[in-house]
Amino acid sequence: MLILVTGATGKVGQHFIAGLLDDPRFSDARVRALCHNRLCNETDRVEVMRGSVADRTAVAAALSDVTHVVHLATCKETPAEAMDISVKGLFWLLEEFRTSASARQFILIGGDAAVGHFFYRHEGPVTEDTPHSAYPGSYALSKVLEEVMLRQFTIQYGINACCLRAPWIMEKDDFKFSLSFGDDVFGGPDWKTLVPEADAKRYARDGTVPLLRDADGRPLKRNFVHVDDLVSAMLAALDNPRTTGELFNICMDRPVDYGEVVAYLASTRGLGSVDIASRFHSNWMDNSKAKYFLDWQPKYDLGMLIDSAWGYERSKDDPRIVWYPG
Q: 324: closest CA among 122, 17, 128, 37?
């Protein structure tokens, strides 16, 4: 088993490779990491090739003798690169995959941006049958186009491919910083811009957290997944015959409720909170299909997500570097 991993140096890529190499089910597996700006460490089971997924020649070379592709490479709100990386890159990977004599399975990691996550009102749980609805920007559009392209390749050419659709992916202290009123905020909203400057500085100093309210005035519910749970789903999908042509929501059993977050932090850490109004909409991703087909179960609940983030202590050789805004 030779697995081509794109986006191998990212949050998910690093955890996936480590999890794969530690899993006795895949003791014979080797990894080929297609790297662009950053490089993986090479080992006896990990080889590195340098190139861009937008370059067909590089993609063809990277797919030589490959049995599985795990496609993670993406870009955020960078319109100049979105079509090259997310659309052209996926197209070249799929073109080379479908004509390869060795290729057996293609796994795409998608995102809930394809269904608009909290930008649009959903009248029921967000399932794999929920229509695509990209919110404004190039990133969400690219997530829709990726899912559609992958599906069409399975229809046109009968390739063995699946998509694991994840919401916001957390690791280490990400969740803590996603609620920061300081300049160190991870992702959005950028809380300090939603309150007076003096208040933002005080909230950042005191560790105050935002209680985000949805368009109906209720505490917002938003979907998350911990990277460990996503990786376990990826490993469950690898070489699984039940994944062919399927799309799976990979997320926590319950969305994060900002009201429950502030209550938990108040009771366990004595932190205060402040209400923040928004026009966002609560939603609830349904992960039951992944549980049924993959025999998968997320381990992280709200308490574990919070405790792991607030309890994480960074060493000097583990600086907080955010390559993408969220």
A: 37
Could you tell me how far CA 137 lies from the centroid of its own chain? Answer: 17
Rounded-to-integer distance, Cα 72 and Cα 54, Å: 14
What's the one-letter identity of residue 153? F
Question: Cα separations (Å) of 58 from 32, 36, 69, 87, 89?
Answer: 13, 10, 14, 16, 10
Give yes or no for a contact between 210 and 282, defined as CB atoms under 8 angstroms apart.
no
C-alpha torsion angle, residues 99, 105, 106, 112 (rounded to 10)? 150
127 burial (CB, 10 Å; 0-12 / 13-18 / 19+) is middle
**CB neighbours (10 Å) of residue 302?**
18
Does the pTM exceed 0.85?
yes
What's the pLDDT tens digit per position in 246-297? 999 999 999 999 999 999 999 999 999 999 999 999 999 999 999 999 999 9
Measured CA to CA in angstroms, residue 311 lies from 59, 214, 301 at distances of 41, 28, 15
Q: For the residues of 33-100, what is the DSSP string, one character each? A: EEESSS-PPP-SSEEEEE--TT-HHHHHHHTTT--EEEE----SS-HHHHIIIIIIHHHHHHHHHHT-
Q: How many Å apart are CA 45 and CA 57, to the nearest integer?
A: 24
Q: Which of 82, 112, 98 is nearest to 161 (CA)?
A: 98
Domain borders along the chain are 2-171+223-254+283-300
Q: Can you identify the CATH homologous superfamily of domain 2-171+223-254+283-300?
A: NAD(P)-binding Rossmann-like Domain (3.40.50.720)
Q: Phi/psi of residue 273, each to 5°?
A: -145, 165
User: 326: which 2 tokens?
Assistant: 């969220």
